[in-house]
Design a protein that fits this description.
The complex is a heterotrimer of chains A (about 260), B (about 230) and C (about 750).
Chain A lengths: L13 E6 L8 H9 L7 H5 L8 E9 L2 E9 L18 E3 L5 E3 L9 H5 L6 E2 L26 E2 L5 H14 L13 H5 L5 E5 L3 H11 L13 E2 L11 E4 L1 E2 L7 E3 L1
Parallel strand pairs in A: 1-10
Antiparallel strand pairs in A: 1-8, 2-3, 4-5, 6-7, 9-10
Chain B lengths: L12 H34 L1 H4 L13 H7 L4 H4 L14 H8 L7 H11 L4 E4 L12 H8 L1 E6 L8 E3 H7 L8 E4 L1 H9 L16 H10 L12
Parallel strand pairs in B: 2-3
Antiparallel strand pairs in B: 2-4
Helix pairs in contact in B: 5-6, 7-9, 8-9
Chain C lengths: L4 H20 L8 E4 L5 H5 L3 E6 L8 E7 L2 E7 L12 H10 L9 E3 L8 E3 L2 H17 L6 E5 L4 H14 L2 E4 L6 H11 L6 E2 L6 E5 L10 H13 L6 E6 L4 H5 L2 E4 L5 H14 L5 H10 L9 H8 L3 H13 L3 E5 L9 H14 L9 E2 L18 H12 L5 E5 L3 H4 L6 H4 L5 E4 L6 H4 L3 E2 L10 E3 L7 E7 L19 H11 L11 H8 L1 H6 L9 H11 L1 E8 L22 E6 L13 H4 L13 E5 H7 L5 E6 L4 E9 L6 E5 L26 E2 L4 E2 L5 E10 L21 E4 L4
Parallel strand pairs in C: 7-8, 7-15, 10-11, 10-13, 11-12, 15-16, 16-17, 21-25, 22-24
Antiparallel strand pairs in C: 2-3, 3-4, 5-6, 5-17, 9-14, 18-19, 19-20, 21-28, 23-24, 23-28, 26-27
Helix pairs in contact in C: 4-18, 5-18, 6-13, 9-11, 9-12, 9-13, 11-12
Classes of the chains: A alpha+beta (about 260), B mainly alpha (about 230), C alpha/beta (about 750).
Chain lengths: ~260, ~230, ~750
């Protein structure tokens, strides 16, 4: 179903590496994303009705209870899966996988059946149950590069595609190479993260090399006979996400523990 | 009873029912049809920006492109400066107009209007001629870059970097012919979509510039047809 | 079905209405026009979006930010990669500036009160009028010899703003006080006593091997969290061996969650624990023995009294744990001990902090890589780096003066004292004995809503200024704050709208005919003239042949810093405060107030993004909740969402119960910062104010408020409300052993 025509054959496959050992749960990525992508303001009622929209959210997972208690932080956002369960079920083809490896959400096509959100195992898709509104003066802050969604439309993390587009354009115009570690290209969350736990790049380029090392077991601390620190979330479902997570290191862990 | 009187037979319930349903359905269809026609017609005639079916709106200042383009020889990009760097071509600031017009055009009432607006520090509220909906991110700069340069005029494209289709070339200059090698400046590219702005007093939209128009041109010119090229 | 005439008309009317609505739901008229401005905004001259460097003033850490400006509007905040404090990263609070710049409830002009004090009724007046009124009052006071009855309370203000406030008040003859809700006066005293430093040191987390922190939520809101987090990222998975992190705290904070080992300690016992660790270090012959000997002798300290098994029961930490920590800390250096937060908020806070920071001495981590790194002397001689902060004791004295009628004018800038000072201080009542309350805030916060005269200042994104980070990176830094957009209310003319606070003081000074000794007419020039020194020194990150080039360079880079301008390596022997046990009020539960990520100490409560930021531990937003131990909750029949009344001897508040597995028994944690009586639509009448019910217990060694020493009783009110939290928003996906979301691995040996 992918039309590969001419310049649709992009060389890039965008992906991210998230180091859970570095993530402190500070929520900087959450607000940076809301600022960049015109995400509606989540009021108290949105949370109590369990319909708050946070394209990237930090899940806090408990282990144990006082006094032997631990909490882990996990950033969850659209994994841009190669075999995305959300893509085949859209009746109007509003979400599809493009040649750059991104799972694209086309807002103007979406009719709001919410089948895609139902299918996403990462619960990374959000629906606008209400019309997003901002007080008049706050509209000055909205990002003109990103469409402002209305009620009835699905939205989710786009890897800040507006930044990818802008940087690609700029580099084409100036005749320079598109560099992966360019801050104008990286999504807002990656730039914000104070511990640099999030990394963005081309899985066909440098980031891919790094990711391969982590997945094979040659990189990072904590690699042992269990393999490297890299893994995909819920990988047994066969979604082939483009986001690699690096395991949390806990010196007191006896063997690889995990949380479902 | 007088001869000639007749009594209408009381219709059966079944018949009545059938008649009512048919009547109701036809009425419904008529209403729907009427609404649709009203809506469409009013949209066509009431919203020239969206349906591009007009002679151009009246502007607060009757700016004549002909005088400036043909008369003085200004390039499009002299005023619409950002067409080579960013998404929007941008209307120039009034400050640009008065760089010349603070001395030129003393006896013209339109020039007086510009001067007084700058003096009062008021912006000029032009009526928009071309508009894309909010969910479309159209980038002028990529299109200028695509078409500007030395190109060979062909019927069907085989190499997008060195060729240009005949129909696009002829929008720039009707005299271009097949096989010619033409030098297209950045400002000449504008005519492909915006036509010849010097042909009439008011600027009007000459191509429909609907998504179909965009996609057809993209397909023919080997440009990306990925939805996320424009919709994000 | 037959259709009646009436029905037909209804349908026809309805469909006609529908058609009209179709028409009306069209494109708004203003989208069908495009404007030629008189002059193009800078970013449209080039067609490229512009990023301007400035300094963030949302919290006190002074991160350098770059702001994306398109067509004259600020769109996005990102970290300035050059700035030494945050190096390109930023926190949740840094983005907030955008929403505070464009907040719908900003004050739009100077105001004067009409109606009762606190009624919230104000009338707009012009700047000339406002400055005239204030200067008249101040003149009256000084002419009757009562200029010392004028008091200005500000946030901890350093750099040029601090200088101008200090100078104004000292030349006028009044008093300047600095206010911080969860004050760190004890912390500053501890630093002075232990390291002999006036300026807060930097903590080299990036290069340390064993990090031992007590109470400080440094990854979240304490100190300079972005800088510490950058170091923490390297500490965990940088190009070096992974470090070990112990966190000692009587509450399971976000920083505790990130530690390899969270050591629960009974509240207030951190100092004793620190001395116990010191005892192990010394008795096992680890660390710097000479330093240890000098330390114990100078302080006449009998370390053996703190041997682990002797105090283990009292402090609630096992003796083996103490030994293990001490050995790791001393053997596997470089190591770093940090203390702060609730640890310093007890009645023995200063003792706790001095004992903790002294540990650095015992292992040679003072002014060394991987340890505590001193910050050098200030960039400018006459511009303070150390902001003025007064202790709770000082504020109690102020309240006494207010009640006695000897405060003639109270001026407040960026310090919400009405909200933050506990009811036990008596401030709220005493305020009515002060004839004039003036606020310089740009926002209708609680104190401003009680004031008589408001002279609103600019938002920091539209203002000039400077910033010398309170917690520097170990060398001299001066951040330059420049406006990234025109002032939002500029179109209202020069007599309305907002003004720079420094400019207001300069205008006041000229009305009062007092000479501030400045060589400039406005605040921007004060800063500009001041940096000539740096230009002349021809050192540091910005150098140029001309002053204009230098100033441009400063604005482009976001400031000036000099990595060679480091502190002298002077060491002193730590002075330990008298070891003492903590003293608490009456009540069953320890109350630990804490700052949550979004709204912090309350200053972010008006910003919707910050209110909507989930707390990392409980994921609650928008509300005031109380963290309770699961077993205590079960015992008391408390469930999540139950409204709990928390009462101290001062008063009581209500909060929603959110039991969590990490909360220790007989301890309740309540976030600060809600419960405002004003503050715009997002903050007003929301949640409860825990500051109000803190008891006036004071750490006698420092005068600081022992804000973690209050004990409370809790009870169910009888009703419950939905908790607005992020977790459990989504139904649990099907899980089995194969479907894992977080994987954990041990370290390789």
């Amino acid at each position: 179903m992918l039309e590969r025509q001419g310049t649709d054959m992009a060389d890039q496959k965008w992906g991210m590496v998230v180091d859970i050992d570095k993530c402190t749960g500070c929520q900087a990525c959450v607000v940076a994303c809301q600022s960049e992508n015109n995400v509606p303001i989540n009021e108290e009622g949105h949370f109590t009705q369990r319909r708050a929209i946070e394209w990237i959210r930090i899940e806090r997972v408990w282990e144990g209870e006082f006094p032997d208690v631990k909490a882990r932080f996990l950033p969850v956002f659209c994994q841009h899966c190669d075999e995305a369960p959300c893509e085949p079920v859209c009746p109007v083809y509003a979400t599809y996988h493009n040649s750059e490896g991104l799972n694209v959400q086309v807002y103007n096509r979406c009719i709001g059946t919410r089948f895609c959100a139902n299918n996403c195992p990462y619960q990374a898709r959000y629906f606008n149950f209400w019309e997003p509104t901002w007080p008049e003066s706050l509209k000055n802050q909205l990002n003109p590069d990103v469409t402002v969604r209305s009620r009835g439309i699905m939205e989710k993390c786009t890897f800040c595609i507006q930044r990818i587009r802008r940087s690609t354009r700029d580099s084409d115009r100036e005749g320079t190479e598109l560099e992966e570690d360019n801050r104008a290209l990286s999504p807002a969350c990656v730039n914000a993260c104070p511990t640099q736990a999030l990394k963005f790049g081309d899985l066909n380029g440098h980031l891919g090399e790094e990711a391969a090392e982590h997945l094979e077991g040659h990189g990072g601390h904590g690699d042992s006979h269990h393999g490297g620190r890299g893994y995909h979330m819920l990988d047994s479902l066969g979604t082939h996400p483009n986001v690699i997570y690096l395991k949390k290191v806990d010196p007191s862990a006896e063997e690889v523990e995990a949380h479902g | 009873m007088i001869p000639g009187d007749f009594q209408v037979k009381k219709p059966t319930f079944k018949k009545l029912f059938k008649l009512s349903v048919m009547g109701g359905v036809s009425l419904g269809v008529l209403l729907v049809g009427l609404i649709a026609v009203t809506w469409v017609l009013s949209a066509w005639f009431g919203r020239p920006i969206i349906f591009a079916n007009n002679e151009g709106p009246d502007q607060p200042i009757a700016f004549p492109h002909e005088t400036h383009v043909d008369g003085i020889g200004l390039e499009c990009a002299f005023c619409h400066r950002n067409v080579t760097t960013e998404a929007a071509a941008t209307i120039p600031s009034a400050g640009l107009c008065v760089t010349c017009h603070q001395v030129v055009g003393d006896d013209l009432p339109e020039v007086e209007k510009v001067r007084s607006m700058v003096a009062d520090n008021r912006p000029i509220d032009w009526v928009r001629v071309h508009r894309n909906p909010d969910h479309v991110h159209f980038v002028h700069e990529a299109h200028i870059r695509r078409f500007a340069g030395t190109k060979e005029v062909v019927k069907e494209l085989t190499n997008s970097e060195t060729q240009i289709r005949l129909e696009d070339a002829q929008r720039i200059d009707a005299e271009f012919e097949m096989g010619q090698s033409v030098e297209i400046s950045e400002s000449q590219v504008c005519s492909i979509c915006h036509g010849d702005v010097t042909e009439s007093e008011k600027v009007r939209q000459v191509r429909s510039l609907k998504m179909g128009d965009c996609v057809d041109c993209h397909r023919a010119n080997d440009a990306p047809t990925d939805c996320s090229t424009c919709h994000y | 079905m037959a259709i009646t005439r009436r029905q037909f008309l209804t349908y026809a009317g309805g469909s006609a209405a529908g058609a009209v609505i179709f028409q009306a739901c069209g494109v708004p008229a203003d989208e069908l026009l495009v404007q030629s401005p008189v002059e193009m905004p800078e970013d449209m001259v080039s067609g490229l979006d512009n990023w301007y460097a400035t300094v963030c003033k949302q919290c006190g850490s002074g991160e350098g930010i770059v702001v994306r400006v398109m067509e004259g509007r600020a769109k996005k905040v990102e970290g300035n990669v050059d700035h030494p404090i945050n190096q390109g990263s930023h926190s949740v609070r840094c983005e907030a500036g955008l929403q505070s710049l464009y907040h719908p409830d900003r004050i739009r002009s100077p105001l004067v009160r009409v109606g009762e004090r606190g009624s919230g009724q104000f009338r707009e007046i012009s700047w000339d009028d406002a400055i005239g009124r204030l200067s008249l009052q101040l003149k009256n006071l000084s002419e009757s010899g009562k200029s010392n009855s004028a008091v200005m309370i500000t946030d901890p203000a350093s750099a040029h703003i601090g200088m101008i406030v200090d100078r104004f008040m000292s030349v006028y003859g009044g008093r300047h006080m600095g206010y911080e809700p969860l004050e760190r006066t004890g912390l500053r005293r501890a630093v002075k006593q232990v390291f002999g430093q006036d300026v807060m040191p930097d903590f080299d987390i990036k290069n340390t091997n064993v990090l031992l922190s007590f109470g400080a939520d440094f990854l979240n809101t304490w100190g300079s969290p972005v800088r510490y987090s950058r170091g923490y990222g390297e500490f965990r998975q940088g190009d070096r061996k992974r470090g070990t992190f112990y966190h000692v705290d009587s509450r399971f904070s976000m920083t505790a969650a990130n530690a390899d080992n969270w050591v629960y300690v009974k509240p207030g016992m951190e100092g004793i624990l620190a001395l116990s660790i010191a005892q192990v270090i010394v008795s096992e012959g680890l660390g710097d023995l000479d330093a240890a000997r000098q330390f114990t002798e100078n302080n006449s300290l009998d370390l053996d009294a703190f041997e682990p098994s002797k105090i283990s029961q009292k402090i609630g930490v096992g003796a083996e744990t103490i030994r293990h920590i001490a050995e790791d800390f001393a053997k596997h250096g470089p190591s770093l001990a940090i203390g702060g937060g609730a640890t310093g908020g007890h009645s023995n806070g200063l003792f706790n902090l001095t004992a903790i920071y002294a540990l650095n001495y015992l292992v040679g981590s003072v002014n060394n890589p991987g340890g505590v790194v001193f910050n050098p002397a200030p960039v400018f001689e006459d511009v303070p780096v150390v902001p003025r902060v007064d202790s709770f004791l000082d504020f109690q004295r102020l309240v006494g003066d207010m009640k006695a009628g000897s405060v003639g004018a109270l001026m407040v800038r960026n310090a919400d004292v009405w909200h933050g000072l506990s009811d036990s201080s008596g401030f709220k009542d005493a305020l009515f004995d002060v004839p004039l309350l003036v606020s310089f805030s740009g926002f209708m916060d609680d104190t401003t809503s009680m004031s008589d005269l408001v002279l609103p200042e600019h938002n920091y994104l539209e203002d000039w200024g400077s910033d010398i980070p309170d917690i520097g990176p170990g060398y001299q830094v001066l951040g330059i704050q420049q406006p990234v957009v025109r002032p939002f209310f500029e179109s209202r003319g020069s007599q309305l709208g907002t003004r720079n606070f420094g400019d207001v003081l300069i205008s006041l000074a000229s009305e009062l005919e007092i000479d501030l000794g400045l060589d400039a007419e406005n605040f921007q020039d004060v800063v500009k003239n001041s940096v000539r020194e740096l230009y002349d020194s021809n050192s540091g990150s910005v150098r140029s042949d001309s002053f204009a080039g230098f100033w441009n360079g400063l604005l482009q880079r976001g400031g000036w810093w000099d990595t060679a301008a480091i502190a002298d390596n002077v060491s002193t022997i730590p002075i330990l405060s008298e070891p003492q046990d903590p003293v608490f009020g009456g009540g069953e539960f320890h109350l630990i107030p804490f700052t949550t990520t979004g709204i912090g100490d309350g200053s972010g409560a008006s910003i919707p993004w910050l209110q909507a930021t989930p707390d990392p531990i409980s994921t609650v937003t928008w509300q005031t909740w109380v963290e309770i131990n699961m077993k205590d909750a079960e015992r008391m029949g408390i469930e999540e969402g139950d409204v709990i009344e928390i009462s101290s001897s001062v008063g009581s508040i209500e909060a929603l119960a959110v039991p969590n597995p990490g909360a220790p028994p007989l301890t309740v944690g309540v976030p600060v910062g809600q419960g405002h009586r004003a503050g715009g639509r997002y903050a007003k009448d929301r949640g409860s104010n825990i500051y109000a019910i803190l008891e006036a217990n004071i750490d006698s060694a420092s005068g600081a408020l022992a804000w973690a020493s209050t004990k409370v009783n809790i009870s169910r009110v009888g009703r419950s409300e939905p908790v607005s939290k992020l977790e459990n928003t989504y139904s649990e996906p099907p899980r089995d052993e194969e479907q894992l979301i977080i994987k954990i691995t041990p370290l390789d040996s």
